[in-house]
Amino acid sequence: MIMSRLSCLRRWQWIGLLGSSLFMAVPAMADDLDVLGQFIEQRQAADESGSVSSFINHHPDSNLESQAQIAGPLLSSQSALIMNNQTGEILYQKNINQVRSIASISKLMSAMVVLDAKQNMNDQITITPAEIDRLKNSSSRLSIGTVLSRRELLHIGLMSSENRAIHALARTYPGGMPAFVNAMNRKAADLGMTNARFYEPTGLDPRNQATARDLALLVRGASQYPLIRRYTTEDSGVVYTSNGKVEKYRNSNALVREGSWPIALQKTGYIREAGKSMVVLTTIQNQPVTIVLLNSSSSLNRVNDARTLRSWALQQQAL
């Protein structure tokens, strides 16, 4: 009885603390505070009452573990979504309508535009000075003068997010770069991505933007292309460059490299304005599910957020 009263007192002390300092940083080890703070942050838009006291009043007999299940997982990513890729049902959401820079996730749209054009995938394309990134000054292992097939460029562009490869594909599109970008925006409209805007093919331009909801539709559209599914989930590839090097590319996604998830399609992204982002098409209880994570603080947090969301979804299915 004494312990029960103490537990109740501690709970309402935490509520008082949250009520007076909602915008203060929560201690990393204060798991119970994190649960309630997560409810405020992620569920306020969905729950009109939006208060911690309302949350507990509606679940007076639940312990903190069950409250965590209702409130949802604590994530580093600023926007997040889980969607059933077959039915379109949204299973989890956090700031899914906030427009954000999407970085190299843009390359999924570029890949669809390339494949829709039905150009010869065996055509040889030369990497030229036009492919040099003068916006972010990012590096590339594709030396100027390297000649690769359209297929090889698409492979390393999707698997390893090679910017010069995707830029070269857009440059050699019928009508050139302006026509390619126009096709990206038309495709976005066709997919129902109402808040998406594209200014170039690689994602280096922070004006390439969309919402998490938009990106769930992007993944659904891209999943209809077998070559995109294959290239985004292969572990590695080798190309020969003009400077005489043999360059081995690895998949940019640690989840693919680990090989423990059933991943059907994925893409990572990063520029400073976008943070660490990721989209993943996986399966949960034999259902195709899209996970979208935008603007996480680090690569490790991005991967951990994905693991957390998948585990949370599996637990929900078991309830």
How would you describe this structure to a colleague?
There is one protein chain. It is built from twelve helices and eleven strands. With 319 residues, the protein is α+β, with helices and mostly antiparallel strands. The protein has two domains: 70 residues, no CATH class; 240 residues, DD-peptidase/beta-lactamase superfamily (Beta-lactamase). The strands form four sheets. The chain has a five-stranded antiparallel sheet, with helices on both faces. The N terminus is likely disordered.
Q: Level of helix content?
A: 40-55%
Classify the oligomer.
single chain
| Main beta-sheet strand count, sense and barrel state | 5 strands, antiparallel
Assigned CATH class of the largest domain: Alpha Beta
In CATH terms, what is the architecture of the largest domain? Answer: 3-Layer(aba) Sandwich
